[in-house]
From TrEMBL:
Protein name (database record): Xylose isomerase
Family: Belongs to the xylose isomerase family.
Taxonomic classification: Bacteria, Pseudomonadati, Pseudomonadota, Alphaproteobacteria, Rhodobacterales
Organism this protein belongs to: Thalassococcus halodurans
Binding site for Mg(2+) 1: E232, E268, D296, D339
Keywords: Carbohydrate metabolism, Cytoplasm, Isomerase, Magnesium, Metal-binding, Xylose metabolism
GO cellular component assignments: cytoplasm
GO MF, one annotated term: xylose isomerase activity
Enzyme Commission number(s) of this protein: 5.3.1.5
Reaction(s) catalysed by this chain's protein: alpha-D-xylose = alpha-D-xylulofuranose
PROSITE patterns tied to this protein: XYLOSE_ISOMERASE
Location of this chain's protein in the cell: Cytoplasm
Cofactor binding comment, as recorded: Binds 2 magnesium ions per subunit.
Length: 435
């Protein structure tokens, strides 16, 4: 039943490259087979509930610009109205998944018991909508950064009562995610970091964060949750320094606390940029360690110093990202979540549809380019050629040798190697054939 919010808008369909207007897919054809798999099953698109429906259009320097019929988001009636509109949009877009934080879908009541009650009520309501529409939950998570109680962190908070509140909050969100057959559960640190070392005990906070995550994993197994536990790196903002800085930092943290076989990474384009990396880099690091779980697809404005969360529009960047995803074996329980929001001047409901349509098309083009590169094999051949010397028995034996033996060989063979070209420009030209 129509809510009237998207009045006059019908289901978005694939019309090909010659499709007219900005509300049809030119490149995203869910049933197109790419590398033996349907495009929908490769990309596993999800809509972020928070940016699409909970965000009110504010930025660091100004407040609300969006006036939605469910604002202010302070009671269950409006929460259900918001869910009605959300699932109507899911049907218009036809993406298979969505994602939420608890604070996106239920009003803040103050006490844990009241918040848990409204969370259970709204997720029962959303479960009925999932059943009716076929839209599934890619992942759920807890917002432990917005409310003032989290100003000094959640699991890393110096107050043990806040740690306890965080543990109870995550339990409730995991139960709700499990009830809705969610395929993953995400923990984003938010304020798990510090603003100054003058009042911070790093060792204690990291140990508490490691213990907290072990509790999460234990509870996953206790309730029989079959999804993947994911952590999401971010270097800064809002904290001066966050403990989950980037993929490499998270992987080291997981190994330190014995979680490397239990937890994978949810990586975001915008967070990679804030860490001084490319998205391609973060995906390659996670893929090399077998810890790539899911992605938040967006982009930052390269002239702004904060996490602007815009819809993706750079096909070459997206192609290189999906190249790493495909090299790592593709998504299993994870997917492509649009952690992206409208610009605060984009007020109309149709803008929300257009933003997702454009992002889905960019990802589809990127995926097809990445698949074509992999099937062509030029990049992999170039890598194999560059490291070919290591395939010889002598080179392999050197890895099991010692410095003295290697030094003697260099002297006896009078080794004086000449550098070889890295051929970067030729590889960049090669990529441009596909994007």
């Amino acid at each position: 039943m129509s809510t009237g919010f998207f009045e006059g808008l019908s289901k978005v369909t694939y019309k090909g490259a010659d499709g007219d207007g900005d509300l049809s897919f030119r490149h995203y054809n869910p049933d197109e087979v790419v590398m033996g798999k349907r495009m929908e099953d490769h990309l596993r698109f999800a809509v972020a509930y928070w940016h699409s429906f909970a965000w009110e259009g504010g930025d660091p320097f100004g407040g609300q610009t969006f006036e939605r019929p469910w604002h202010p988001q302070d009671d269950m009636g409006r929460a259900k109205m918001k869910a009605d509109v959300a699932f109507e949009m899911f049907e218009i877009l036809g993406q298979p998944y969505y994602c939420w934080h608890d604070a996106d879908i239920r009003p803040e009541q103050g006490s844990y018991a009241e918040n848990l009650s409204t969370l259970n009520e709204i997720t029962d309501y959303m479960g009925e909508k999932q059943e009716a529409t076929g839209t599934k939950l890619l992942w759920g998570t807890a917002n432990m950064f917005s409310h003032r109680r989290w100003m000094s962190g959640a699991s890393t908070n110096p107050d043990p009562d806040v740690f306890a509140y965080a543990a109870a909050t995550v339990k409730g969100c995991m139960d709700a995610t499990h009830k809705l057959s969610g395929e993953n559960y995400v923990l984003w640190g938010g304020r798990e970091g510090y603003e100054t070392l003058l009042n911070t005990d790093l060792n204690q906070e990291l140990d508490h964060m490691g213990r907290f995550l072990n509790m999460v994993v234990d509870y996953k197994h206790k309730i029989g949750f079959k999804g993947t536990i994911l952590v999401e790196p971010k270097p800064q903002e809002p904290s001066k320094h966050q403990y989950d800085y980037d993929a490499a930092t998270c992987i080291g943290f997981l190994r330190k606390y014995g979680l490397e076989n239990e937890v994978k990474l949810n990586l975001e384009q915008g967070h990679a940029i804030l860490a001084g990396h490319s998205f391609e880099h973060e995906l390659a690091v996670a893929g090399a360690e077998g810890m790539l779980g899911s992605i938040d697809m967006n982009r930052n404005d390269y002239q702004s110093g904060w996490d602007t969360d815009q819809f993706p529009n750079n096909v070459p960047e997206v192609a290189l990202a999906y190249y790493q995803v495909l090299k790592a074996g593709g998504f299993t329980t994870g997917g492509t979540n649009f952690d992206a929001k409208l610009r605060r001047q984009s007020l109309d409901p149709v803008d929300l549809i257009a933003g997702h349509v454009g992002g889905m098309d960019v990802c589809a083009r990127g995926l097809k380019a990445a698949a074509a590169m992999l099937e062509d094999g030029g990049m992999e051949d170039a890598l194999k050629d560059r490291y070919a010397g290591w395939e010889t028995p002598e080179a392999q034996a050197m890895l099991n040798s010692d410095l003295e033996t290697i030094s003697n060989r260099v002297l006896s063979d009078n080794l004086n190697p000449e550098p070889r070209s890295g051929r970067q420009e030729r590889l960049e030209n090669y990529i441009n054939k596909f994007v």
